[in-house]
Design a protein that fits this description.
With 110 residues, the chain is mainly beta. 0% of the residues lie in helices and 40% in strands. It has no helices and eight strands. A six-stranded antiparallel sheet has the order 1-2-3-8-5-6, with no helix packed on it. A two-stranded antiparallel sheet has the order 4-7. 21% of the residues are buried.
Length: 110
């Protein structure tokens, strides 16, 4: 089914094992939904005006539902059809997102 949504000012206060959530962070909406094999589909949407410059957004692995025990994550850009590599350090920095634009990724523990 569709992700369940929770609006939070700057951090996630709900259980990360839920079927999905939305986190409002400044001018961005971050949607996440668990997939097979522990992966998570991640959709980042800019709520900013289209005249706003592009901004890269740090996406914390635990905020999208990955376990704190996950230290290495393979990220795939769904729309570009590219694997972006393996990321460590607990987060991933998106490609720059302009106003009313979006990014779509799959995060898979590796």
């Amino acid at each position: 089914g569709p992700p369940q949504c929770v609006e939070v000012a700057s951090s996630v206060a709900d259980d990360p094992t839920r079927s999905g959530k939305i986190v409002m962070q400044r001018a961005f909406s971050l949607w996440a939904k668990p997939q097979r094999n522990g992966a998570v589909a991640v959709f980042l949407l800019s709520n900013q005006d289209s005249k706003t410059g592009e901004t890269a957004v740090a996406i914390d692995f635990t905020r999208v539902g990955l376990s704190k025990a996950v230290t290495r994550v393979t990220v795939r850009d769904v729309w570009e059809r590219k694997d972006l590599g393996v990321f460590t350090g607990g987060s991933f920095l998106s490609s720059p997102v302009g106003g009313h634009d979006s990014r779509f990724y799959v995060f898979k523990p590796s």
